[in-house]
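step 4 of 6: structure.
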Amino acid sequence: MSTQARRERERAEREQAIIAAARDLALAEGWDAVTTRRLAAEIEYSQPVLYSHFRGKDAIMAAVAVEGFAELAVALASARASATDPRQAVADVAAAYTTFAEQRPAIYDAMFTLAVDLPFASQDVPTDLARGFAELAETVRPFAGDDDLEAVTETFWSGLHGLVTLMRSGRLRRADHDRRLAVLVDRFSR
Amino acid sequence: MSTQARRERERAEREQAIIAAARDLALAEGWDAVTTRRLAAEIEYSQPVLYSHFRGKDAIMAAVAVEGFAELAVALASARASATDPRQAVADVAAAYTTFAEQRPAIYDAMFTLAVDLPFASQDVPTDLARGFAELAETVRPFAGDDDLEAVTETFWSGLHGLVTLMRSGRLRRADHDRRLAVLVDRFSR
DNA sequence: TCCAATTCCTAGCGCTGCTAGATATAAGAG
DNA sequence: CTCTTATATCTAGCAGCGCTAGGAATTGGA
């Protein structure tokens, strides 16, 4: 059945359109502006169609987050690959991480602050998330010393995450960001 | 006018009752469960009364956060005061911070992740928040070295905040918390 | 005792995520 | 080619949200 294949393809395209619309709208106006009605209007279908693709708004946000995990992994890998020495790699990866979060605040939120349960239940999230985590681990490995690598990586990650979130919620002055990042990098690369 | 004094007192008591109800409800069921209708029912007044005390739900959350800032400052000061040596002080203060956040997740959220603008516009927030920040600064001061103390403090704070938020959103296993905390403490106390 | 001012509540607006039931469209059988 | 069946989609609506206008009730002072 060729028609069935076509319909499945169209369905997949529509699903991608939903994710793209949610992503764009969230980046432009924040997640509060992403309502099911606006999404439906954007893809030129009625509201209930969304629910034939996703279980609810949270699942749509999770799908956007999944894309984000893949993007972040690429950004970190690129930063690490182009660094000249291990110490510089830590600095570059840290900078790449915070830059990613700064440039796509809504996506970063979907990945790490909102949508608690759903993304981790999906199949492909662990893969891409693990890829990004592995990049961080390889970056700090030369400086882990006697400490457990996983614990060091998670702590380094937490430092980056804290810097990003506190800055964007207005608790930390954006002007001093580089100085703080330098402190964190220094503490994890010696 | 004695009656006027009484009414003002009753008004203040009712305002405190609103904050307490919001705090209790948020701690018990999360901020999503704190609706203006439930709050009104809790204090046994109608909804619009809330708006004669606070500009809106955000302002009520901000009021809960303000109390939290004072509590956190006390907890950190207590931990620092009872520590035997500077290195132990870092460990104790860090543990006190994460314990505070773990035990009062909803309040911690109101303080540091939600209610972005309002609390910092108020008068008494900077005081209590600064007090907590000062405790952190004094704790890490012996280990700041040549680095700017404020930058080190903010970075240490970010590490704690990251550990707390990533753990509670399920991104970090709770079982490994102590190990991560030890890594963070080690990196900021040598 | 009456009036004025304050306090408070009822009712409702526009919005949200989500869904049941009806309708239009397409596919397969005779 | 027509009719029936199945699928895809929409219209309309529910319950809940934060918030507010306008009227009712209570209170204090003359």
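step 5 of 6: annotate
 - The mean pLDDT of chain A is 93.
 - The radius of gyration of chain A is 19 Å.
step 6 of 6: archive
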